[in-house]
Amino acid sequence: MLATPSPLDPDEEARLVHSLRCELRGDDGHVTETAVRGARTADRLNAACPPPGLGAACGEAE
Question: Which residues of the chain have pLDDT under 70?
């Protein structure tokens, strides 16, 4: 059973967004290799097992 996530307070959320922006954009403003790898991984995961409601993959009934 998964724990229920606690809501983020606005300061925590702002710090998280700032951290992600720093990680996923280089000093020159272009995306980093980390961002590209993350996007490619997400695409592969969605292709292997799409989110609910997007097909019959992974045993989901249509």
Answer: 1, 50-62
